[in-house]
Here is the input.
Amino acid sequence: MRNSIFQKRALIALGLVIGLGLAWAGCSSSVKERRGDASAGDVTMVGTYYFFDDILVPKELSYKASKSFVYETPQFKTGSMVFSKFWLDAGSVADFFVYHMERDNWKLLNSFRGKESILNFSKPEKTCTIKIVEKWYGSVEVEIRVGPLGMKKM
Here is the structure.
């Protein structure tokens, strides 16, 4: 009898460990992807273009309208877009932007990596700075700033 109680408890414990492991693995997020060429259909599966048609944002990130703005004139479009997500690897977010910005014909000027990462990109007519910050409570915040380059002074 004592043996059957021990076996039942062991099976229950094993079931809990497996169940928690599967639940934890299902809730984790990652922005990493393979480096192969993607077809046009894959672009919508990995991210979204918000207000700028040449800046792809990972689909895992949530847009924060209250912290964002976009200003547009006939000559240019500028703005700051803020996104966030809990439990996301900041390094893979930075890798995502480096890879996809270069695919959208942006040139990586420089990058600073760490707890707070900054990526600077340029095109002939505009610049983009992407700031990726890991918050102490487990959230990752991404700020994308886009502005014109080489505007003449009035």
